[in-house]
Amino acid sequence: MSKDNCKKALHIRNAFLSLTSLFILLEIAIIFQLNQPLKIIIEDMSTEEKLFVQNIEYGEQFAVNYIHSVERSPVSEVFEVRSDGIYTMESHTESFGAGMPYEGEDVEIDDGKFIIKNINRKVHGGTLRIRPSSVFPHHIVIGDKDILISEAPYKGKNLEVKLMKGYFRGD
After folding, report:
1. For residue 159, what are the contacts with CB-CB under 8 A and spacing of at least 6?
2. How far is CA 168 from CA 33, 52, 123, 135, 137, in A?
3. Which residues span the membrane (predicted)?
4. Do 150 and 138 meet the contact criterion of CB atoms below 8 Å apart?
5. How far is Cα 39 from Cα 79, in angstroms, rounded to an integer?
6. CA 12 to chain centre
7. How far apart are the first and last CA of the chain?
8. What is the separation of C-alpha 50 from the centre of its chain, rounded to a whole number of angstroms?
9. Beta-carbon neighbour count of residue 56 at 10 Å?
10. Are 24 and 52 in contact (CB under 8 A)?
11. Could you give the 3-state DSSP secondary structure of residue 32?
């Protein structure tokens, strides 16, 4: 083998090893990204302070429960976590008064309540914004946690419920 052929072979081998190393690093980065825990976060919109952080899985649902300020009746809205954001899935109400949700594929009446199912609408921007009531109890139920957001440290704040991947202090 000539000296020039040896140099070409070494350049090809070095290029192959460099590409192989690059692919291995990309695979490690992708695996790391996919294995990061998904978190649901309740955050103060103005300060970005994380008031609540919990692991959550794609496909898991959570609810926002409150008393409607005009109708004075309980409302429960059910949301689902998806890879591209939060989706409104159901609404449970006692009436279709002012400001009450009413769109959906299926409407049932169960125990005097209207249950709108299969709403399947992405929350604008993938982040749910809530201003907790200062008059009536306002809850977010995530798994077995029932968070009363009409009391400290949530009370009087504009809140965002959002999803994040990654690790946080205290994990």
Report:
1. 42, 43, 44, 45, 51, 129, 130, 131, 132, 149
2. 15, 12, 25, 33, 29
3. 12-32
4. yes
5. 15
6. 47
7. 59
8. 14
9. 18
10. no
11. helix
Query: Which amino acid, one-letter code, is at 146?
Result: D
- Residue 37: pLDDT band (50, 70, 90) is confident
Residue pointed to by tokens 């994990």: 171
- 31: tokens are 């695996």
Q: 18 — phi, psi (to 5°)?
A: -65, -45
For the chain, what percentages of helix, strand and coil (3-state, to nearest 5) are there? 20, 40, 40
Q: What predicted TM-score, i.e. pTM, was given to this entire model? A: 0.74
pLDDT tens-digit map of 85-103: 999 999 998 876 545 455 5
Extents of the domains making up the chain? 1-35, 38-165
Can you tell me the distance from the alpha carbon of 134 to that of 145, in angstroms, rounded to the nearest whole number?
A: 21
CB 74, CB 65: distance < 8 Å? yes
The tokens describing 25, both together, are 């690093």
Identify the three-state secondary structure at position 97: coil
Nearest Cα to 104, choosing from 120, 86, 122? 120
Query: Within 10 A of 49 (CB to CB), how many other CB atoms are there?
Result: 11
The amino acid that residue 2 corresponds to is S
Structure tokens at 153: 């440290």
